[in-house]
Design brief:
With 243 residues, the protein is α/β, with parallel strands linked by helices. Helices cover 49% and strands 11% of the residues. It contains 8 helices and 5 strands. A 5-stranded parallel β-sheet has the order 2-3-1-4-5, sandwiched between helices. Helix 2 runs antiparallel to helix 3 and helix 4 packs across helix 7. The longest helix has 26 residues. The protein starts with 18 loop residues before the first strand and ends with a helix.
Length: 243
């Protein structure tokens, strides 16, 4: 039985060309867990591409800087949505789809679920104007498995504050490398949103999980790194061959 309460009754799949994502509210530890899983799979001999959104390409890194810079606090919600979608399309064309075509295992720190949770639920935007674009350009490349690291908002915000203090003490802590751990990263524009916003985002992830319980696996992110990592690994062993 998985942490989502869904029995692991489906047949196992090959990791060749598998697309796996990590998502959740800021501070949930998804970057750390994505990197740990990538390292563990490489130890088993798998070819793994570890990437992230926004910022998984050179162009995307420029968009990430604009999107997360606290100085851009006056960015409109619609502008924000379109920039995230632009980053994703570039990421798919330049990095994700070529890697999947080669047979690599792709692990992505955030993907389209984040846009649904943050912009549709958090910003309360109507996605009707962009639904056709999403269906044509993004939906055809959907993750096989998404780890939703679920964490209560108060704990997440406390972790973000601690992370910001660490960044202030060690400005070199934020490496900016794709897939790097968020530890030591400075506070982003979204980190500064009201707790109510983060609450709506968390409810957005819960809604996605209810709609797609086979794809989106809820992992309790309130524990230690090792325990969460073991829960992730057990889920991988239930679903994929060769582990």
């Amino acid at each position: 039985m998985s942490q989502s309460g869904t029995p692991a009754s489906h047949s196992k799949r090959s990791l060749r060309g598998a697309f796996i994502t990590f998502d959740g509210i800021d501070g949930c530890g998804k970057s750390t867990q994505a990197a740990l899983l990538a390292s563990r799979l490489r130890d088993f001999g798998f070819s793994v591409v570890l990437t992230r959104e926004p910022g998984g390409t050179r162009i995307g890194q420029g968009l990430r800087t604009v999107l997360l810079d606290p100085k851009n606090g006056n960015m409109s919600a619609h502008c924000e949505l379109l920039l995230y979608l632009a980053d994703r399309v570039q990421h798919l064309d330049e990095a994700i789809r070529p890697a999947l075509a080669r047979g690599d295992t792709v692990i992505c720190d955030r993907y389209h679920d984040a846009t649904v949770a943050y912009q549709r639920f958090g910003r309360e935007l109507d996605f009707t104007p962009v639904e056709g674009f999403i269906a044509a350009e993004i939906a055809p490349t959907s993750p096989q498995l998404t780890f939703w690291l679920d964490l209560d908002v108060d704990t997440a915000l406390a972790r973000i504050a601690q992370r910001e203090r660490a960044a202030g003490a060690d400005p070199k802590g934020a490496s900016g490398a794709p897939g790097a751990s968020a530890k030591g990263a400075a506070e982003s524009r979204l980190d500064r949103e009201h707790p109510d916003f983060h609450g709506r985002v968390r409810r957005g992830y819960a809604a996605i999980h209810r709609e797609e319980p086979e794809r989106v696996l809820r992992i309790d992110a309130g524990g230690d790194v090792e325990g969460i990592g073991e829960a992730v690994w057990q889920a991988m062993r239930e679903r994929y061959d060769g582990l």
